[in-house]
């Protein structure tokens, strides 16, 4: 065990060590003192070309010891089978980094409700010892798996992984030859809602367009571009909730086409949502103060949130007030995004530390209209590619401790799901309470 290697064991540390040994949990976190400086190794899908990237932080001693990262196509430790299953290999000489590979993501997977690895595994090998490993992983039941530690928590206490503009994907889309000026600025994800949920995403951000003369009247849009019929989006969420015991937030945030602030059109949308979701919708009677335990006890597990105050008031037995989204409208580089997210977090904890209404940090760059017209930044894929590694590292670190909902573009190019699950375990497990807002 790593615990034992620590050099200066004073009394305090010895106590922790004892507790560690007892619970067999969190040893690394306590003993290095910085949970957030723990090593991280993970695979991502590059949004620009769907190729697999290798990402890592805090790998120890890469300058001193012979260090290699390997990708394999099954879970067998490559050291035990002479590297037979290795499809990619390279030498690491830095603690933090990212490496493109020549492997490509296959988006035709079928999913089931088993937490499992698929397609590719990754290993960090140092001096012929396997030190860290990971894989592409499905987390279809992560909330229910932690039910005992989440039961008294509110949504506001959790770290929930989310997607920005969740329904802005096209199935079968290959960015290497299909991208045009419209898709460059309208698609924000590579996989559908079902796949997002099976991977572990639990917050969905939706923008709705109303098309009066169409058979399908309501669509999930990105801005003025209509992308997926709303009925298809809702069906995927319902199917997922039927198959699991997970809780999902559906947040209706913007209404970019066909609404023109018309109360009537909103009423129509709410009627439609009610017809589709009333048997699934969490009862908003006590609002965002509801605990996950209450939700599980009552059985309905889709939280339908809506960003229009008077509509929410009128339908107070069906709709939750929307999640507060923290929008930087930042377009240039990670540094400005980081500055915005940190500053708004500080501002918020001054304003509303006792509010139970959740907030979502929108951890992506957003171009302005003129940048879109001139294609100044080369599209959302390129923009996401420039920040997602850094966003992941930031939430892996101390900034993750007080995160609530984090919504990203092209989430398969981040490790946000694994990070959220780890932080929730860290915060609520072991009888400790790190969950309160300081
Ligand atoms: C990827 O590159 C390695 C060499 O590093 C080669 O052995 C392998 O065949 C390549 N795989 C593909 C799918 O092109
Ligand atoms: C992708 O996966 C599907 C289903 O497993 C398989 O039939 C197909 O051949 C794969 N495609 C590629 C390019 O590997
Ligand atoms: C934080 O609050 C300060 C002072 O009110 C304000 O100037 C600043 O714009 C706010 N920053 C963010 C990101 O909300």
TrEMBL record:
The keyword Signal applies. Gene3D superfamilies: Phosphatidylinositol (PI) phosphodiesterase. The keyword Lyase does not apply. Keywords: Signal. InterPro entries: PI-PLC_domain, PLC-like_Pdiesterase_TIM-brl. Residues 1-29 form the signal peptide. PANTHER family: PHOSPHATIDYLINOSITOL-SPECIFIC PHOSPHOLIPASE C X DOMAIN CONTAINING, ISOFORM A (PTHR13593:SF149), PTHR13593. This is Uncharacterized protein.
């Amino acid at each position: 065990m790593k615990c034992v290697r620590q050099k200066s064991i004073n009394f305090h540390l010895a106590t922790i060590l004892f507790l560690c040994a007892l619970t067999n949990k969190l040893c690394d976190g306590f003993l290095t003192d910085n949970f957030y400086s723990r090593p991280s190794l993970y695979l991502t899908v590059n949004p620009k070309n769907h190729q697999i990237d290798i990402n890592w932080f805090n790998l120890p001693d890469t300058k001193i010891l012979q260090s290699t990262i390997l990708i394999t196509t099954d879970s067998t430790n490559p050291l035990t089978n002479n590297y037979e299953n290795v499809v990619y290999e390279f030498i690491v000489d830095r603690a933090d980094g990212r490496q493109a590979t020549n492997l490509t993501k296959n988006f035709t997977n079928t999913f089931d409700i088993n937490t499992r690895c698929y397609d590719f595994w990754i290993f960090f090998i140092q001096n012929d010892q396997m030190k860290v490993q990971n894989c592409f992983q499905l987390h279809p039941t992560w909330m229910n798996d932690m039910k005992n530690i989440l039961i008294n928590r509110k949504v506001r206490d959790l770290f929930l992984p989310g997607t920005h503009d969740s329904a802005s994907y096209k199935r079968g889309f290959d960015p290497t030859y299909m991208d045009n000026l419209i898709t460059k600025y309208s698609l924000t994800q590579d996989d559908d809602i079902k796949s997002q949920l099976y991977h572990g995403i639990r917050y969905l951000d939706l923008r709705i367009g109303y098309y009066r003369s169409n058979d399908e009247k309501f669509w999930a849009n990105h801005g003025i571009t209509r992308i997926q019929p709303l009925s298809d989006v809702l069906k995927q969420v319902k199917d997922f909730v039927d198959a699991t015991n997970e809780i999902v937030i559906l947040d209706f945030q913007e209404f970019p086409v066909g609404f023109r602030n018309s109360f009537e059109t909103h009423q129509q949308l709410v009627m439609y949502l009610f017809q589709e979701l009333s048997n699934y919708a969490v009862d908003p009677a006590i609002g965002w103060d509801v605990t996950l335990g209450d939700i599980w006890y009552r059985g309905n597990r889709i939280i339908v949130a809506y960003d229009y105050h008077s509509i929410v008031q009128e339908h107070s037995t069906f709709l939750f007030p929307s999640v507060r989204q923290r929008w930087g409208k930042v377009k240039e580089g990670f540094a400005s995004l980081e500055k915005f997210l940190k500053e708004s977090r500080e501002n918020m904890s001054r304003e509303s530390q006792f509010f139970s209404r959740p907030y979502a940090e929108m951890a992506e760059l957003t171009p302005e209209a003129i940048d879109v017209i001139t294609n100044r930044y080369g599209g959302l894929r390129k923009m996401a590619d420039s920040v997602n590694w850094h966003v992941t590292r930031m939430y892996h670190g101390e900034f993750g401790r007080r995160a609530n909902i984090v919504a990203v573009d092209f989430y398969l190019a981040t490790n946000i799901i694994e990070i959220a699950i780890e932080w929730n375990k860290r915060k609520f497990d072991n009888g400790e309470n790190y969950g309160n807002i300081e």
